[in-house]
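New to this. Please check this fold:
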Amino acid sequence: MATSSLGPEDNVDAINTIDYAEQELGIEQIQAEIAKLPPRFLAAPDEVLLPRTHSTASEVHRESSTTIQPIKKPSAGMLPSSLAHIVRRHPSAHRPLFQSQTQTSLGGNSTDRNSLEEEQYRFGGPMTPKDFTNETKNCCTIGTFKRKLPILQWLPKYSREDFVGDLIAGLTVGLTVVPQCLAYAVIADIDLEYGLNSAYLGCFVYTLLGTSKDVTVGPTAILSLLTGTFISRIVGTPGEWAVLLCFFVGCFQLAVALLRLGFIINFISVPVVSGFTQAAVIVIILSQVKNMMGLKFGEASDTVIETIGGYIKHMSKTNGWDVLLGCISITTLLLMKGMRLPLREGSIPKWYRSLADVIHLCGVSRYAIVVMSATLLNYLVMSSGIRALSATGNVTAKLSAPKMPNFAVGGLALSEILRTFGPGLVLVPLLAMVESLAVAKTFAHKYHYNISITQEFLALGTANMVSSFFGSYAVTGAFTRSALNAESGVRTPMGGIVTGSFVIIAIVTLSSALQYIPKAALAAVIICACLNMLDFIKPAILMHQFIIRTRSTYARCG
């Protein structure tokens, strides 16, 4: 086994294992193109990690772990975009490899590539005593301070154009997050004020510590389902259990970030995450149909069999008005999703462009429009003395002073509380990190910027821990709101400040109106949000790859 010393000028190219096409260029010409690339860690289009650029040797910190193996043929992941189409056929689900380099690119001792059977490059793994010593020595330097507070890097360059883009995107996301956080609290089966409390402070913390301009931190459907599953409803209140779970989730994520254990995410395979997501979406939709029907039964931790049995048992109590409002809400949301005016070629009148912007804003704010319209309708009906729709009831939403989570819920000892959470203490933070990292990777690839994996976990853990002091349950990066944030033209993480401020204003001014929100409208919001998460293409691709590999294995064995 040979080793080589990798410095900050190293050009290590992350690649994916690919079914290569016949090469149309020679190795020498391709390597010449690679040598022109900037001295940074490059990630393949399908790569799961986007490490940051390091300027000095002391700033080279480990983010993940992998094994270097010799590459006989270059892949599209290592090539500039002008050459990638030559060798790519289709991406593979295999994990990335790192190509071994020679003295020309590494600046180290020249080594024969054929002799490099396997090298271990420290690009991740747990923190060692040497790492701890280096971290301690450099903890008070300006570089470390700027690295741990990314806002210090982009805030001095903040411009008026950045402010306008962040303001528009932040307000647009704010119009979506308010009805969604109320709906996600219904999934967790906790009071609605906990949903509102989880929608603003995480945005503030991520603006300070996050490395992605597009990620919006807040409650999500899957995390809400997990929260409702692992909290207790026997003693104490569900809200207290949810807040305490949020605190432990933050502690776990901070430990992962500080000990540099983010490489454990690599052991969660794509099929597992995809299967879990699709199953969770089905469970969520099935559990919300009862709110569209005006039924009251079961808990968030019920199984699919128990939920179906509840529908059969309580079917005769269906409220037709709730069903009608829910169907109208779903239809409206689906119709408004793609609502926009086509932009004609040539000169466009100002009035036409303004009208197109208004219609587009209505489309992206469809959740808020539907919920506000349904709330106004229910208020008018209830003012007439008619109670036809099932409403959320009294909601005590208000901004409160920070306080410690209750570590003795229901008078239980801490050991009993931890035993009650059980595997949720590990499963919830892990899935939150996977979900947030997937969102950050997607938009980092799309808009060509780097993110720091360790810093992302640090921001997420801090957001959960701090939010728990303000009555929040577990939060993570939300894909739908982050996509809306990016489409709305966000330019920096400052958009999170605007979104969080909008939520605070909504809590202060609209708390008295929350009691009139129909449950059917919130159920429609949840169902439509979950429909966007259904993915039938990825399971089909994974099944196709499994069949091909199984056939090839039997062919070789036969």
About this structure: Confidence is low (pLDDT under 50) at residues 1-24, 38-124. The chain has two domains: 14-124, 172-335+389-540. Residues 14-124 form one domain.
